[in-house]
Specification:
There is one protein chain. With 447 residues, the protein is of the alpha+beta class. It has three domains: 8-54, Transferase, Pyrimidine Nucleoside Phosphorylase, Chain C (Transferase, Pyrimidine Nucleoside Phosphorylase, Chain A, domain 3, Up-down Bundle); 84-329 and 434-445, Nucleoside phosphorylase/phosphoribosyltransferase catalytic domain (Pyrimidine Nucleoside Phosphorylase, Chain A, domain 2, 3-Layer(aba) Sandwich); 337-424, Alpha-Beta Complex (Aldehyde Oxidoreductase, domain 3), CATH 3.90.1170.30. It has 17 helices and 14 strands. The chain starts with 7 loop residues before the first helix and ends with a strand.
């Protein structure tokens, strides 16, 4: 029961004036709100005051602690080895979890992965997993523990017991225009991740037109905040800044991304996907004490693809979650979408820019995403790109194909996708996929 010696109005006023709150004050607010003893309008006022005046590192850690302890913290101490997870801040075509989780698990590092659903332009890992017929992500905590003990890997959705305060606060932030606050974002991410039972964490913080953080400076600040919180909780935490100014890989949409992930696990995936995958996987293997350095972890990640261990782990985990393994082994058996529409270039030249956000929204309109949490998702819908930044196209050459079961969405999608690329005679500044590493010692340029 929250300690009612604190006055919510006094705490809100204190934060409104820009003064730092104590751990006990923040804990009181979160506990009271979770227990329905503080109404939405007062918590909304606190969120707005925090949004406008910020939260320092101690306050962000206290917020994370309070949300983390609003529910169950999974105990995985019965499983040997360091438990390591990865979290991405999300982007268009980001299917990395589906590839790196089986890689890392096949190298002997337990990966307890609790993921979310997509909303808006950014796809969710759970939606991709559920595009596999029969795949069940809604499992009990006992089943969660059973699967990770058996396979070194589990792929599940958030249960009601894990960080319930975050779930309530997230919904409130969504309707009070306070989503973009970096400390609030960090607290939300870390409370869920720390509740999984992890010992270490690798973060993929994306920036650019298709990312939540549009500019690199905000991405740096978020990465530093996330790493600081992780380290304050005694979890080794390393973050990378990665570029989302074009989609990751060529596939956008749930089953299309699963199919591309299968290619990656068979060693024939796109270079940009595999570069980031091997770096994140290698870092997880290193933090899991299975490699003496990140570079050695990257080598082990490559080996797991080449010797087939990662793909076999993927087959095993799909089967364990009730998924249809036949479509993993033979993706062409997957049911055909009603409409496949080629999209051609309106001019000739080199693609120099992509509106990645627009591509994510086009995919949503085709059926691959949701505007609200209640919307259904079409697993077959999406976009397959044939060219990306740096690619040369001729006038009327196909650069993408749309997949949809919604005939009424096609004309607008074609028009918008044509407008989402820019052409020039040559590419002046090639994109760098990975720009920085952030750890407890600060920010470092990635070479």
């Amino acid at each position: 029961m929250p300690n009612m010696k604190y006055n919510p109005v006094s705490i809100i006023r204190k934060k409104r004036e820009g003064d730092p709150l104590t751990k006990e004050e923040i804990q009181f607010l979160i506990q009271s709100y979770t227990a329905d003893q503080i109404p939405d309008y007062q918590m909304s006022a606190f969120l707005m005051a925090s949004f406008l005046n910020g939260l320092n590192s101690d306050e962000a850690a206290a917020l994370t602690y309070s949300m983390l302890h609003s529910g169950i913290i999974v105990d995985l101490s019965h499983i040997s080895g360091k438990k390591v997870d990865k979290h991405s801040t999300g982007g268009v075509g980001d299917k990395l979890s589906l590839i790196l989780a089986p890689i890392v698990a096949s190298c002997g590092v337990p990966v307890p992965m609790i993921s979310g659903r997509g909303l808006g332009h950014s796809g969710g890992t759970l939606d991709k997993l559920e595009s596999i017929p029969g795949f069940n992500v809604d499992i009990t905590l006992d089943r969660y523990k059973e699967i990770i003990k058996k396979h070194n890997l589990v792929l599940a959705g958030q249960t009601e017991e894990i960080a319930p305060a975050d779930k309530r606060l997230y919904s409130l932030r969504d309707v009070t225009a306070t989503v973009e606050s970096i400390p609030l974002i960090a607290g939300s991410i870390m409370s869920k991740k720390l509740a999984e039972g992890i010992d270490a964490l690798v973060l993929d913080v994306k920036f650019g037109s298709g990312a939540f953080m549009k500019n690199i400076d905000d991405a740096k600040e978020l990465a530093e905040t996330l790493v600081s919180i992780g380290e304050q909780f005694g979890k080794e935490t390393i973050a990378y800044l990665t570029n989302m100014n074009q989609p990751l890989g060529y596939a956008i949409g749930n089953w299309l991304e699963v199919k591309e992930s299968i290619d990656c696990l068979k060693g024939i995936g796109p270079d940009d996907v595999m570069e980031i995958t091997h770096l994140l996987a290698g870092t997880m293997i290193y933090l899991g004490n299975k490699a003496d350095s990140i570079d050695e972890g990257i080598e082990m990640s490559h080996d797991a693809i080449e010797n087939g261990a990662a793909f076999q782990k993927w087959v095993d985990i799909v089967e364990e979650h009730g998924g249809d393994v036949s479509v993993i082994k033979n993706p062409d058996q997957y049911p055909n979408v009603k409409f496949k529409v080629d999209v051609s270039s309106i001019g000739s030249g080199v693609i120099t820019k992509m509106d990645t956000y627009a591509m994510g929204m086009i995919s949503l309109e085709l059926g691959a995403g949701r505007r609200s949490k209640e919307d259904d998702v079409d697993p077959q819908a999406g976009i397959m790109l044939h060219k990306k930044i740096g690619g040369k196209v001729e006038r009327d050459e196909t650069f993408a194909t749309l997949y949809t079961n919604k005939e009424e969405s096609i004309d607008e999608a074609v028009k918008n996708l044509k407008a989402a690329i820019e052409l020039a005679d040559e590419l002046q500044n090639p994109l760098k996929s990975i720009t920085h590493r952030v750890d407890k010692d600060g920010i470092h340029e990635y070479q």
